[in-house]
């Protein structure tokens, strides 16, 4: 079959393949002109030539990365949508086009550069020897542009728009620029990746260049220069590693976020390649947004024989954006500094911050305060002999099903800059700590971090902790760094070992007790949230998670100290707790020296919230109150409210109701109705009336038993 031909103006046939080459050449030249025009004329918001300034910094060796943003291409008036679409759908080709444009536009350095780098010395020597101008008829002797470049070009996706999940990246996205989100689960070491291999011929002495575009390549062994061919000499080539060009290379694994995984499915993962200046930008546990080119990669070796035509896929990363930065890396944006200063002057900031945690969840004020202090924490202490005392606060939430324990944990993970939510049922000991796996890049055995490793220096929330096997649960004894643990179990089944319980600073038992007033108020709250998709009015505007994160990051920079006059006060309080426990013989409660350290940690966290350099006695009192309330919550065998005995609780109910009605007189019928709603009996009410009448708190009518408060 003959090739198709077309007629030219002169009537001579012209092969279609040559015409395609001509069109491609013309298009390439027009694309180069467009790229140069954009880099030269695009101005930023203040009218400065953005990319020319970047190129000047590159020429002065201040930076190495030239990042072309699609937002800038979209806003540039002289580029049409078709060009933008071609950049998005054929990104790798346009990276080379922009790189060639940068080569032509690169200005001379305006600062004195030190020529002590190997690359500079070799390039100077090549220019002096005329290597670049050598026999241009031999393409292998011509110096490739890659070896001359001391910069890297990246194309960044649009900043707006929701990133795709790994599950949404399909075969139709091959070769395109995509933006995905996920959590980094594994990172390899940074290795050198050969970009241009340079050989020296032992016979003719020429330098031969071989561009490497894949992960593997076949080295040259015989000199292909024209001189060796003319002399019919098979010159032996020696690979010059010092003269070759290498690029920093790192491989990572990114996994779907938990909220993106459909029910009944396992999270999907994607291999990510990071090159040059993008290496060392991510670490396991980081929640990131990556933009890059979705590309296929063929299997090699024995796997290729089994795979056949099937290829693996990976993401060639172009930009890295962290969703939540670590506290120490957090930079305040806009008016956040003013908002934090204004909040710090608020006398009720402690309560407002606590109520801003999961405002859609009704009640649990003290539990929310405990979780707030967990986020703030205390600084780590390192003694002169090298011994370390942790500053992180551990919280254990226990209770009946349906009391919002899991929702509280998930909200904490949302606020924390680094956090992992997992369940005890789906976590083995290896899944929580670390697993040994084979690195596909180096074939070395590497450790892949589990949930506790991914949450290092952050929060690890483990739900259904009691569903774990005992052997798995013991695996985290010594790796309890920063975590909250939820045990979704009925109260009478709490049976965790003392060695584990003593590692928690606060243990909360959240029971679902029947209480008509509380149940009615909670039902109204839930219905309001369900209908309006927001919490009822709290009397103030709850802080957004981003502002809460900014406030906590500012508070964590404070390192409060305990004044000497409070040392005796804390020691006495600890001694009293030990004595009370010995007398009461309370279940599920273990007071050790760790409890004393817990008091100090919670007090320091409270001082941090006030941006105070010293711990006040009010901080210690609040820490003791929280610990006492957490212990009272464990005494589930008595019907106690707020940790009080029945008589005191009935008195509190009557006093609160009298204050609410603004009356000093309470009828016996009303009193009986109020306490019956709380689950108390008439006999307990009469006992309370007699006891407090003897204390001259109120007077009792001898016939009707109505109550009159003596002290308003």
Automatic annotation (TrEMBL):
GO biological process: DNA replication initiation; DNA strand elongation involved in DNA replication; double-strand break repair via break-induced replication
Coiled-coil segments: none
CC terms in the record's Gene Ontology section: MCM complex; nucleus
Primary localization class, coarse: nucleus
Documented EC number(s): 3.6.4.12
Name of the encoding gene: MCM7
Protein family per UniProt: Belongs to the MCM family.
Subcellular location field: Nucleus
Function: Acts as component of the MCM2-7 complex (MCM complex) which is the replicative helicase essential for 'once per cell cycle' DNA replication initiation and elongation in eukaryotic cells. The active ATPase sites in the MCM2-7 ring are formed through the interaction surfaces of two neighboring subunits such that a critical structure of a conserved arginine finger motif is provided in trans relative to the ATP-binding site of the Walker A box of the adjacent subunit. The six ATPase active sites, however, are likely to contribute differentially to the complex helicase activity.
Protein name: DNA replication licensing factor MCM7
PANTHER family per UniProt: DNA REPLICATION LICENSING FACTOR MCM FAMILY MEMBER, DNA REPLICATION LICENSING FACTOR MCM7
Keywords: ATP-binding, Cell cycle, DNA replication, DNA-binding, Helicase, Hydrolase, Nucleotide-binding, Nucleus
Matching PROSITE patterns: MCM_1 (PS00847), MCM_2 (PS50051)
Catalytic activity: ATP + H2O = ADP + phosphate + H(+)
MCM C-terminal AAA(+) ATPase domain boundaries: 349-526
Molecular function terms, GO-annotated: ATP binding; ATP hydrolysis activity; single-stranded DNA binding; single-stranded DNA helicase activity
Top EC class, one word: hydrolase
Top-level lineage group: Eukaryota
């Amino acid at each position: 079959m003959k090739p198709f031909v077309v007629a030219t103006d002169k009537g001579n046939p012209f092969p279609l393949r040559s015409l395609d080459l001509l069109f491609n050449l013309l298009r390439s030249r027009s694309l180069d002109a467009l790229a140069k025009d954009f880099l030269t004329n695009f101005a930023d918001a203040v009218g400065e030539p953005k990319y020319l300034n970047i190129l000047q910094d590159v020429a002065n060796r201040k930076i190495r990365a030239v990042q072309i943003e699609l937002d800038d291409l979209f806003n540039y008036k002289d580029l049409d949508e078709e060009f933008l679409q071609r950049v998005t759908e054929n990104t790798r080709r346009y990276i080379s086009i922009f790189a060639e444009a940068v080569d032509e536009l690169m200005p001379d350095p305006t600062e004195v550069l030190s020529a002590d780098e190997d690359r500079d010395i070799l390039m100077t020597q090549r220019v002096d020897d005329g290597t670049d101008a050598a026999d241009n008829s031999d393409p292998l002797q011509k110096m490739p542009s890659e070896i001359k470049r001391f910069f890297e070009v990246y194309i960044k996706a649009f900043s707006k728009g929701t990133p795709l999940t790994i599950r949404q990246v399909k075969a139709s996205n091959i070769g395109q620029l995509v933006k995905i989100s996920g959590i980094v689960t594994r990172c390899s070491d940074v290795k050198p990746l050969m970009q241009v291999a340079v050989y020296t011929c032992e016979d003719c002495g020429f330098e031969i260049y071989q561009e490497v575009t894949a992960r593997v390549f076949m080295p040259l062994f015989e000199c292909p220069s024209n001189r060796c061919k003319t002399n019919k000499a098979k010159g032996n080539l020696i690979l010059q590693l010092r003269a070759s060009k290498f690029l920093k290379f790192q491989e990572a694994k990114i996994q779907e976020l938990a909220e993106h995984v459909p029910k009944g499915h396992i999270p999907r993962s994607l291999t990510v390649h990071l090159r040059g200046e993008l290496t060392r930008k991510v670490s396991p546990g980081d929640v990131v947004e990556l933009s890059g080119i979705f590309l296929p990669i063929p299997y090699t070796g024995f796997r290729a024989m089994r795979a056949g035509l099937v290829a693996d896929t990976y993401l060639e990363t172009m930009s890295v954006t962290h969703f939540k930065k670590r506290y120490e890396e957090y930079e305040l944006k806009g008016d956040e500094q003013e908002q934090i200063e204004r909040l710090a002057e608020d006398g009720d900031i402690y309560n407002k911050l606590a109520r801003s945690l999961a405002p859609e969840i009704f009640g649990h004020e003290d539990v929310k305060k405990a979780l707030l202090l967990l986020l703030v924490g205390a600084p780590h202490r390192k003694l002169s002999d090298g011994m370390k005392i942790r500053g992180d606060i551990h919280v254990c939430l226990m209770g009946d099903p349906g009391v919002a324990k899991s929702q509280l944990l998930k909200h904490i993970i949302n606020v924390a800059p680094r956090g992992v939510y997992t369940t005890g049922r789906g976590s083995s000991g290896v899944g929580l700590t670390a697993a040994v796996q084979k690195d596909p890049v180096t074939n070395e055995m590497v450790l892949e971090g589990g949930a506790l490793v991914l949450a290092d220096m952050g929060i690890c929330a483990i739900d259904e902790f009691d569903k774990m096997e005992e052997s798995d649960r013991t695996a985290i004894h010594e790796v309890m760094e920063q975590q909250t643990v939820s045990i979704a179990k009925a109260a009478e089944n709490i049976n965790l070992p003392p060695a584990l319980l003593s590692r928690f600073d606060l243990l909360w038992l959240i029971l679902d007790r029947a209480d008509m007033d509380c149940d009615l108020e909670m039902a109204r709250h839930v219905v309001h949230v369900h209908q309006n998709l927001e919490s009822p009015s709290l009397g103030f505007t709850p802080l957004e998670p981003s502002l809460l994160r900014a406030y906590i990051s500012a508070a964590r920079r404070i390192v409060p100290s305990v004044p000497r006059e409070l040392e005796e006060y804390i020691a006495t309080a600890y001694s009293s707790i030990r004595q009370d426990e010995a007398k009461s013989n309370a279940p599920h409660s273990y007071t050790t020296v760790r409890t004393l350290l817990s008091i100090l940690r919670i007090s320091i966290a409270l001082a941090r919230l006030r941006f105070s350099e010293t711990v006040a006695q009010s901080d210690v009192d609040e820490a003791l109150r929280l610990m006492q309330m957490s212990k009272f919550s464990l005494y589930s065998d008595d019907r106690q409210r707020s940790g009080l005995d029945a008589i005191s609780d009935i008195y509190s109910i009557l006093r609160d109701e009298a204050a609410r009605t603004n009356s000093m007189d309470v009828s016996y019928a009303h009193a009986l109705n109020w306490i019956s709603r709380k689950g108390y009996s008439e006999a307990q009410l009469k006992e309370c009336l007699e006891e407090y009448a003897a204390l001259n708190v109120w007077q009792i009518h001898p016939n009707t038993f109505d109550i009159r408060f003596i002290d308003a």
